[in-house]
Hints:
- Helix content is 43%, strand content 11%.
- By secondary structure, the protein is α/β, with parallel strands linked by helices.
- It folds into two domains: 6-17 and 93-217, Rossmann fold (3-Layer(aba) Sandwich); 19-85, DNA polymerase, domain 1.
- Strands 3-2-1-4-5-6 form a six-stranded parallel beta sheet.
- Helix 1 (19-32) crosses helix 4.
- The longest helix is centred in the middle third of the chain and has 19 residues, at 67-85.
- The radius of gyration is 17 Å and the shape is globular.
- 39% of the residues are buried.
Amino acid sequence: MNKNLAFIFDLDGVIVDTAKYHYLAWRNLANSLGFDFTVEQNEQLKGVSRIKSLEILLNIGKVELSEEKKQTLLVEKNREYLEYVNTMTPDEILPGVNQLLNFLDYNNIKYVLGSASKNAPLILEKVELNNRFVAIVDGNDVSKAKPNPEVFLKGAEKLNMKPENCVVVEDAIAGVQAANTANMVSIGIGDANVLSEADYNFKDMTEITSDFLRNLIN
Length: 218
């Protein structure tokens, strides 16, 4: 097998489904400002930084706030989100994830986490995956949000790999675009129509077979 290959995983929607907790916290924030926020609208926040997510939310509600108020709301939203996160267990690891990580471990293929979430280390600790990744690149390490490729390029550095030898697993179009911009192989997890720019598409992680991985690695 070609050992000169490594994987970079997004977190939300790929390893665990924390998007549902983000949605609840954002919806409650929107409700407190006097408007509703739907599941469909929440799709716009996938793979987007916290401050950018707030800007999108306020634009939906046609609400203008001072920078000071925005910072206060971001703290409040994150506090509520963390209340959900602190209840997480390994049962919330998405189907197919452990099997994929086991395959990579067995074949000595290295992998890191590349996520916009500043809470990524805590989430991995809660689901007991924190010791499996070579490194974590999260929102604390980058200044540019996806589709800027910064998070994945830093992941490649942590792996000591060239970008073209990295495979990114993502569930958001912004993440797929970031991977493509970085000249990495992109695997989209979710709706193939939404993630049509990905090199490969799977409905969920359980669809990624050993045969596919062997062909990719070879």
